[in-house]
Write a structure and sequence with these properties.
Mean pLDDT: 95
Strand order of the largest sheet: 1-2-4-3-5-6-7-8
Shape: globular
Radius of gyration: 17 Å
Helix content: 25-40%
Number of helices: 7
CATH architecture: 3-Layer(aba) Sandwich
Largest sheet: 8 strands, mixed
Number of domains: 1
Distance between the termini: 21 Å
Number of strands: 8
Order of helices and strands: EEEHEHHEHEHEHEH
């Protein structure tokens, strides 16, 4: 699928956050077609908003191709019309905001703000989207996702606020952080979203041992979720041979992820 085209409809605004103490740019993608006053749509919130829609703002100029992918799947009738909300990361604060615990491999990850970020999403951003846009309410139609640290933030937020999200999209999650802190939290969780998509590549880094560990961590999370009763209808795990830790890889897996999470 190609990069997003100008025909897509976006609304962009700055949202001041008390939880974070800064403002954050938010981009809302509206589904194709006429929107009537009575319309209400499922919502997917995605981290790292810079990398979702616009090549000129994306890392290395490559996006997840979110707008084109979603529009095509809607046109084919594979997913319903929906809203997709891109949340810009905080630049130099990205690691601190996305992580609930320090990543000792990253000097920028000290004094983590993950709990504040979760509050920002659930208590500040979501109510605004529900009031200002044609957003359907309820966990069953609300999803959260991201990649790498952004996947950690989505997973942690879902654990911290159970029952808020019914769809979870985790790409190349950095599950090693805090000596697998998220896996320990996951083992104690009793309530999970209705559907969870896990994606990872076998060539996420240049080190074979790290690649093996990265896939193994995703499989550990899969084992935890299976033990909590998430069968094939609720959990999909994609281990893509040769796929890297990149927007290209996440874009390639996005159609499958959206169809599984929101498919009719």
């Amino acid at each position: 699928m190609t990069e997003a085209q100008p025909s897509h409809t976006f609304e962009t605004f700055e949202l001041p956050s008390r939880a974070l103490g800064v403002s954050r740019r938010i981009t809302v993608w509206l589904p194709p077609g006429r929107i009537q006053a009575r319309d209400r749509f499922p919502v997917l919130y995605l981290n790292d908003g810079q990398n979702l829609f616009e090549p000129q703002r994306a890392f290395a100029g490559v996006t997840w191709q979110v707008a084109d992918t979603a529009a095509q799947l809607i046109e084919w009738g594979l997913i319903p019309r929906m809203l997709i909300v891109g949340i810009d990361h905080g630049g130099t604060r990205r690691a601190r905001e996305f992580l609930p615990i320090e990543d000792h491999q990253n000097p920028d990850a000290k004094r983590p703000l993950g709990r504040r970020y979760a509050k920002f999403v659930v208590h500040e951003l979501m109510p605004l989207i529900q009031n200002a846009f044609p957003a359907e309410r309820g966990a069953s139609v609300t999803g959260f996702g991201g990649s790498s640290y952004g996947a950690v933030a989505a997973l942690f937020t879902a654990l911290e606020h159970p029952g808020v999200f019914g769809r979870l999209l985790l790409e190349s999650p950095s599950l090693y952080v805090g000596r697998r802190y998220l896996l320990r939290r996951a083992r104690g969780a009793r309530r999970w979203p209705a559907r969870v998509y896990l994606g990872v590549g076998t060539a996420e880094t240049r080190r074979a041992d790290v690649n093996v560990e990265t896939v193994a961590n995703v499989q550990r999370l899969e084992t935890i979720l299976r033990a909590r009763g998430l069968g094939a209808r609720r959990l999909k795990v994609a281990v893509q041979e040769g796929a890297t830790h990149s927007e290209q890889a996440w874009a390639r897996r996005l159609p499958e992820a959206l169809c599984f999470l929101y498919g009719r």
